[in-house]
Write a structure and sequence with these properties.
Elongation Factor Tu (Ef-tu), domain 3, eight-stranded antiparallel sheet, single chain, mainly beta
Length: about 130
C-alpha cells in the first residue's frame, strides 16, 4: 500500500440511544492511540531487558466545531455528562476501519475571544474488546 493522507476520513459515533451518527464534517482533529501494557520480566541473570505484552487498550481524542443541527456532533455528545452509555465509534480511512466500543468521559466546549466555538472529547475502551483494524 502506498503512503496516503488522511483526507476523506469518516467518523461515526452512536448517540445515547445507540443510533450511529456520521459526524465527520464536524471533526477537525482525530487522535487514536492503541497502547499495550508492558511488564518488565528481566531476571538478574541477563544483560538486557525482557518484557511481555499485557492488556490492549484504545483511546480516542476528538476536536471539532460546534454544530447543533439534528443528529450532528452536539446531539451526539450533549448527553455525555448525564448518561453512562457505551458508544460504538467507527473511524475509517482509505478502506481501513477501526470500530470499537467507547465510554466518552467529557464534552468540553470552548469559545475563543475571536468568536470560534469548538469542542473536544475523549473516549476510552469500554468493553474489553481488543481494538482491531479491518
Amino acid at each position: 500500500m502506498a503512503k496516503e493522507s488522511g483526507l476523506g476520513a469518516s467518523l461515526a459515533i452512536d448517540d445515547s440511544a445507540g443510533t450511529p451518527r456520521t459526524i465527520s464534517n464536524d471533526v477537525n482533529d482525530v487522535s487514536i492511540s492503541t497502547p499495550r501494557g508492558v511488564q518488565e520480566t528481566t531476571g538478574v541473570d541477563v544483560s538486557a531487558f525482557e518484557r511481555i505484552l499485557l492488556l490492549a487498550d484504545v483511546k480516542v481524542e476528538l476536536n471539532g466545531v460546534f454544530n447543533d443541527a439534528t443528529n450532528m456532533s452536539h446531539d451526539v455528545f450533549k448527553t455525555v455528562p448525564s448518561t453512562s452509555v457505551t458508544r460504538t465509534t467507527t473511524f475509517g480511512v482509505s478502506g481501513q476501519t477501526l470500530a470499537t466500543e467507547l465510554l466518552f468521559e467529557n464534552y468540553e466546549m470552548s469559545r475563543k475571544n475571536s468568536g470560534e466555538l469548538t469542542w473536544k472529547t475523549t473516549g476510552n475502551l469500554a468493553n474489553g474488546g481488543v481494538p482491531t483494524w479491518s
